[in-house]
Amino acid sequence: MPLDSIVVVGGSLAGIRTAEALRRKGFAGRLSFVGEENEKPYDRPPLSKELLRGDREPDQIRLTKPEKFDELELDLHLGVRAESLDPKEKRVTLAGGATLDYDGLVIATGASARPLPGAPDLDALFTLRTLDDALAIRAALEGSPRVVVVGAGFIGAEVAATCRRRGLEVTLVEPLPSPMARVLASDIGAVCADAHRDEGVDLRLGVGVEDVLGSGRVERVRLSDGKEIPADVVVVGIGAVPNTAWLEGSGLEVGDGVICDATCAARAPGVVAVGDVARWHHESYGETIRIEHWTNAVEQADAAAERLLAGDGEVPPFAPVPFVWSDQYDLKIQAAGRLSPDDEMIVAHGSLEERRFVALFGRDGKLSGALAMNRVRQLMGYRRMMREGVSFADAVASARA
Ligand SMILES: Cc1cc2nc3c(=O)[nH]c(=O)nc-3n(C[C@H](O)[C@H](O)[C@H](O)COP(=O)(O)OP(=O)(O)OC[C@H]3O[C@@H](n4cnc5c(N)ncnc54)[C@H](O)[C@@H]3O)c2cc1C
Predict the structure, then answer these.
(1) Alpha-carbon distance 311 to 181, whole Å?
(2) Which of 1, 108, 127, 251 ranks highest by number of CB atoms within 10 Å?
(3) What domain range is 340 assigned to?
(4) Phi/psi zone of residue 272: left (φ > 0), alpha (ψ -120 to 50 degrees), beta?
(5) Kind and range of the H or E element at 272?
(6) Paired strand residues for 174
């Protein structure tokens, strides 16, 4: 049965790209677009990079040009939160009590920054997820504060790099033995650690944050080794949590994300999930996964739109090779596949010492991942090989040919 009305909940990358895909694929009915933030969709990657450095302003990071946005003819509900879902009635209730009935629902509510457990309520203690967060941090970086960044994952490492580029004193604290250690082999983590040290970051590895202290505003950070670091600004980057609280009580299956089948369909008629909030069955990996990367949100938007418009018809499974990038100082890092520190690794091009290389990762005889640092052109070829299921040995041989 053709759909007359679709509601998109989540007004950012996954939401707007799904709305665009729906229109592109011919959906001409009512398309409601609900976003908790007051902003029209904007891009998050610059928040820890160009915008925080002061090289870009909010108007320069919009995801859709104004005229293209208008062409979508959205029934817009910005600055308003979806509070609950009734999948039996096919109804979304917004804050304030208004309701939106749907034939199709797109859940694109993303994720929120994970707060530091037990952190006190102090001024200048930040997490970074939204444009408002980034502008508040940027304002706090005026006046040469001493900055402590908690967590050396991608976002924490980028914030540390940006603060150094602004000439600030930066301490980067990470409980694991190297930056981005959850995904990077220790050799590559060590390259990143050296880069931060060379740029003048005081890098504290293998140590956690026990407390953030101050009266009214941040004054110092106490580490698990008992040391205290003076701080005027603290930015916490310790991961993200999927925004599913509004679905509680709906009966929709949720578990670290909205659970979906291989085609992005959630467990209720006419409902799909997209982007950081979606946990779907990845057929090639044989398990459910959730990915917090920009490219995944964009690629999944197309697949979810296809799923919704096809009704009960067949659509191909969504089984991409994940892709992520990170910019820190002059390091351009790009990774494809599923990296794990336990994988077999060889440096196929360049060298770690030069900080210009492509590393290949193998698991169960297959090429499982590739990471490029300042040598990004070759990466897409390896991403294609992963899609084709090329063996690790053949990928290494092709690199050496
Ligand atoms: C600082 C930063 C830097 C990043 N840099 C990179 C990078 O370099 N490379 C990369 O690959 N990825 C990067 N990412 C990740 C990338 O931005 C995310 O994967 C992407 O934003 C996911 O889009 P999304 O639409 O699924 O979720 P989100 O961007 O989280 O958007 C979800 C939206 O839904 C809204 N919402 C939530 N709940 C409700 C509700 N109940 N009702 C209405 N609206 C709601 C939220 O307010 C938000 O606007 C970065 C992320 C951040 C935060």
Answers:
(1) 42
(2) 108
(3) 330-400
(4) beta
(5) strand 271-273
(6) 205
Alpha-helical segments (H) within 73-153: 131-141
CA distance 4 to 354: 57
Do residues 253 and 294 both lie within one domain?
yes
34 pairs with which residues across the strands?
A: 9, 77
Quick check: pTM over 0.85?
yes
Pick the last residue of a domain from 236, 271, 292. Answer: 236
The radius of gyration computed from the CA coordinates of the chain, to the nearest angstrom, equals 22
CA distance 186 to 138: 32
Task: Encode pLDDT of 33-88 as tens digits.
Answer: 999 999 999 999 999 999 999 999 999 999 999 999 999 999 999 999 999 999 99
The preferred substitution site among 44, 114, 238 for testing ligand 1, maximizing ligand atoms within 8 Å of CB, is: 44
Residues lining ligand 1, CB < 6 A? 9-15, 34-37, 44-45, 47-48, 81-82, 108-111, 128-129, 155, 243, 246, 275-277, 292-295, 297, 324-326
Number of domains making up the chain: 3
Q: Write out the two tokens for 386.
A: 């992963």
242 CA from centroid of ligand 1 (Å)? 10
How many CA atoms within 13 Å lie on the side-chain side of 131? 18
Here the tokens at position 68 are: 């293209």
Q: Which residue type does 90 have?
A: K
Which three-class secondary structure state does DSSP give residue 270? coil
Q: Residue 360's beta-bridge partner residues?
A: 346, 370
